[in-house]
Design brief:
The protein contains eight helices and eleven strands. With 391 residues, it is an alpha+beta fold. The chain folds into three domains: 3-136; 144-237; 245-389, Histidine kinase-like ATPase, C-terminal domain (Heat Shock Protein 90, 2-Layer Sandwich), CATH 3.30.565. Helix 4 (139-206) packs antiparallel against helix 5, helix 6 packs across helix 7 (286-304) and helix 7 runs antiparallel to helix 8 (355-366). It is rod-shaped, with a radius of gyration of 40 Å.
Amino acid sequence: MKLGNIYLNYKWWLGLSGVVILFISLVYTNYLATQLAEGERDKIDLISKAFEAINQEDDNLDADLTFQSYVIEKNSSIPLILADENDNIIFAVNFRGDRNSDMEYLERQLERIRADGNEPFIINTAQSPRQYIYYKHSLVLQLLTYFPIVQIILVGAFVVLGFLGFSAARKAEQNRVWAGMAKETAHQLGTPINAIIGWIEVMDSITEKDDEDKQEIIEELRKDVNRLELIADRFSKVGSSPELNKQDLTDVIPPIIDYMKRRAPRQVQFRFEMDSQGVYTSKINKHLFEWVIENLIRNSLDAMGEKGLILVEMSHPDKRVVIEVSDSGKGIPAGKFKEVFKPGFSTKKRGWGLGLSLARRIIEEYHRGKIYVKSSTPDEGTTIAIELPGA
């Protein structure tokens, strides 16, 4: 399984875990809120019955109202308003501060209670009119009602932080792996390169100087060994802080195109275009930057097969240097523009998916630039752009 697919699976599992946690938490919170609301209504029912009993004994001075008073006192944590049939407020309790005597405030509260749809409790009295107890939920129940919003925020933060933490850990681990692999590759290349250099010198020493064919072969071998040394040097710089020097890119890019052209199929055409008025200087590490351009051209060759056109263009807008590598290959689906730069993503059966990932690291982390898919159309071609700060 590709690394990108494994990472995607982890993201889905993390998101699904957050949804499950949120769902269970919301169901349980809703259950608690329902139970608490029913308990509060039962308390108001007891209070209304206690008031009714007190009202019925108003004319009996010897009546024992201790129990009724106890019921009212022990269940008086809920804000309530006692009103008559004409909506005249008789009294109110358990509102914050001195609001229990603020009639304007209590009238607004009474309107809100009615708007919420809470049915009042009727107190039958010996005299007319009847009295009504209106109540609003306690502060605890109100806070519990808003708790799902808090849960959504907390679980959302958990999922987001989980994504960010996993991504950061994954990226750091991959950076260590890629850097370690690159440095180990450079180290392993060192021994056979030195051996080949030695064998080339032996061949040169036993070859006649006037044998032009053999001397040409030896010279080509030297070029290939120099190329291997360059590759080893590039690998050794991955994972470290490469030195950047001011370079004129018009001197750097054409030799790369010529090198790749000699190794491309004959039916592949190469073009290099630029604005002659521009100044194309930037601080780069020449070896690593050449590697990026070679990688883009090599990907274009793979996408086109045996024939097509590779166009390299340079422009100089807003104190930046922009290099665009275009091909007439099979293109990239629109949804994969960002995926192609992720480690492990590859459309090749034997691809590791490291080329564009390392290219992005070289351009964005080392050179403080940008690399992205500018445009791509299936079966028509792709353009990848590199933006570097001018110097």
